[in-house]
Amino acid sequence: MATRKPAPPAFVCTECGWTTAKWVGRCGECQQWGTVSEQAAPTGFLRRMTPLAPHADRAARPITQITTEDAPRRTSGVGEFDRVLGGGIVPGAAILLSGEPGVGKSTLLLEVAAQSARAGRRVLYASAEESPAQVRLRAERTGALHDELYLASETDLATILGHIDEVRPQLVIVDSVQTVSSSLTDGAAGQPSQVREVAATLIRVAKERSLPIIIVGHVTKDGQVAGPRVLEHLVDVVCHFEGDRQTSLRFIRALKNRFGPTDEVGCFEMTGGGIAEVPDPSGLFLSQGATEPGTCVAIALEGKRALPVEVQALTIPSSAPNPRRVVHGLDASRVAMVLAILEKRASIKTSMLDVYVSTVGGVRFTEPAADLAIAIAVAGSVQLNSVPRTVAAVGELSLAGEIRPVTQAAQRRSEAARLGYEQVVDDRSKTLRAALNDVRARNTNRRPDGEIPPF
Ligand code: TYD
Ligand code: MG
After folding, report:
1. Mean pLDDT of all residues in 97-109
2. What residues does the ion ligand 2 have nearby, CB within 5 Å?
3. Which of 12, 19, 33, 252 could form a disulfide with 39 if both were Cys (CB 3.0 to 4.6 A apart)?
4. What percent of the chain has pLDDT above 90?
5. Taking the C-alpha atoms of 289, 292, 294 and 296 in order, what is their torsion angle to the nearest 10 degrees?
6. Nearest alpha carbon to residue 230 among 16, 12, 11
7. Which atom of ligand 1 approaches the CA of 109 most closely?
8. What's the whole-number mean pLDDT along residues 372-388?
9. Residue range 136-142: average pLDDT?
10. Which protein residues are within 6 Å of ligand 1, measured from CB?
11. What is the pLDDT of residues 305-314, one digit of tens each?
12. Does domain 283-442 have CATH number 3.30.230.10?
């Protein structure tokens, strides 16, 4: 009689679900230490599962016979958030909103909750981080008080489910998944097994009741959602909220969206009275007033959105043996490369100068498309030559001093035209030297002696 071999032991990573036959200290997939543990061997019942005849309307069908009906969406009441979600909230959608503590997640979701309540759709806001009084104070300040907005300060998952049964909301917000725990799972709130259990239960409720649920998730310093990675696989939409503490500007991007595109960006501003949408952020990253030598506007791409961003450069004679290079908002290694190209290919020497290069408004602009604007700004500062307000520059520089085309050039050009830039200097100029001459030819800021300053 053949003897059945015992099933090999299986070890599973609690973070990402990776499996291995041998125990290892570090997960081979997500590279985390100490997350691999032995999984209970599957029971005979699981190993010898009998296939079931599927229900008639669940039968597998050829893809061509599958009818599509557009998932009906409801607006979240916040246009910029809708844009990121792909048009609105789909019933039964599980949405994860991630972001660093303090970036404004709770403020945004309170606004979404208030808008939903105003539209007559009851909302349950389960806050496990703040007391009802704290949330009410904030709601008073941001004008989010409404009778259809139900508030529960609760850290126990079962009680939150009880609230859902009682309140019968049409939208649930859980703030945050790391502070809620389930009594069915061991460990404290925030541990991977707890986070996974809480999220999985909420998602199941969302699907069973076609009830959209927005789950807040904190991220670790390196930008990952704290807790198990599987969370990102479980939910339908992952939105990431980002922003600099020094500025009031905030962006939300969709990192994953089962119902729409992932290249949309929502733009917000934190104000004293709550979070405000910024539907047209085109003026935010430009300086006001006359053009100074050493500035150049580029057209950056944030997701699908083209945004004008001003690059400013300041060069002064250096007194240090190693001249300073200070860069804000741009990629420092690209700036170093552009300085080398300027010196070698356009005879603009900066090796004895301290160079400061920055974007206006604290925006991060690290695309290669920034190269040309950096070069023109630095050249302008060295040669005291200003770029006319009607000129923008977009282009990547090659080490040979040629201008390379950038992604979505047509879109950037049309945004530049919409905003009144008459000329976009780009790869049509072929070389950096030609582009600098081109800008110089357009310069109407003559020096007192009537000369157009050279680049
Ligand atoms: P919050 O929504 O609590 O952040 P999160 O939930 O992501 O941790 O936002 C906290 C920050 O937002 C805090 O630093 C203060 C600021 N803020 C405003 O600027 N305006 C406002 O109206 C509110 C409520 C907060
Ligand atoms: Mg919060």
Report:
1. 92
2. 106
3. 12
4. 53
5. 40
6. 16
7. 2
8. 91
9. 93
10. 99, 101-107, 138, 141-142, 270, 272-274
11. 888 999 999 9
12. yes
377 CA distance to ligand 1 middle (Å): 36
Which ligand 1 atom is the nearest neighbour of the CA of 105?
A: 7
Q: Which atom of ligand 1 is nearest to the CA of 103?
A: 7
Question: For ligand 1, atom 2, which residue shows the shortest CA distance?
Answer: 104
Q: Answer with the residue of higher pLDDT: 78 or 31.
A: 78
Q: Is 113 exposed, middle or buried (0-12, 13-18, 19+ CB in 10 A)?
A: buried
Token digits of residue 254: 């969709």
pLDDT digits (tens, 9 = 90+) for 329-368: 999 999 999 999 999 999 999 999 999 999 988 788 999 9
Query: Which of 270, 271, 277 best tests ligand 1's pocket when mutated (most atoms within 8 Å of CB)?
Result: 270
CA 35 and chain centroid, separation: 27
pLDDT at 69 over 70: no
Concatenating the DSSP letter of every residue in 286-353 gives S--SS--TTEEEEEEEETTEEEEEEEEEEEEE--SSS--EEEESS-HHHHHHHHHHHHHHS----TTE
CA distances from residue 437 to 44, 61, 393 in whole angstroms, order as listed: 78, 64, 13
């998952």: which residue's tokens?
A: 157
- Give 72-279's CATH code, choosing from 3.40.50.300, 3.40.50.360, 2.102.10.10, 3.40.50.150: 3.40.50.300
Which of 97, 100, 107 to mutate for ligand 1's pocket (most ligand atoms within 8 Å of CB)?
107
